Amino acid sequence: MAVRLNQRAFDHAKNLIKQKRVVLDVMDDWSEHQPSAAQENTFIEQHGFGEYQKWYLGLDDEQDEDNKGRYKFPYGDFDKVHRCGVIAAEVRAAQRKYDDIEVAAAHLHGMLDELM
Asked: What's the pLDDT tens digit per position in 45-98?
């Protein structure tokens, strides 16, 4: 699996944080705040994969662009950046040794902590 940083999503997340479109929650909240498969499908139907990908810090180059499996490390709910999602992405990227994604998530984490 060739997973790399999705620069477009990283830039989108930074812009949302600058606009204060955030939820300053705790890591354990992600299981409740993460979009469901049905919410993901609805978002894709309404906005397409081009917008969908902005919410995932990782891209799997071995998957087709019109496949949900291509997009890894979600960080928000299709409206706001969730601190819990950023932390979950940071931890999972570190576990899987995706250094570029881990560094990007850590940067977002720091931006969110500055707002607290």
From this structure: 999 999 999 999 999 999 999 999 999 999 999 999 999 999 999 999 999 999
**Does residue 23 sit in helix, strand or coil?**
strand
Pairing of strands 56-60, 81-82: unpaired
pTM of the model: 0.95
Q: Which of 33, 37, 71, 69 is nearest to 52 (CA)?
A: 71
Cα(113)–Cα(65) distance, integer angstroms: 33
φ/ψ of residue 2, rounded to 5: -105, 85
Counting the structural domains of the chain, the total is 1
Q: Which domain covers residue 75, as residue numbers?
A: 3-115
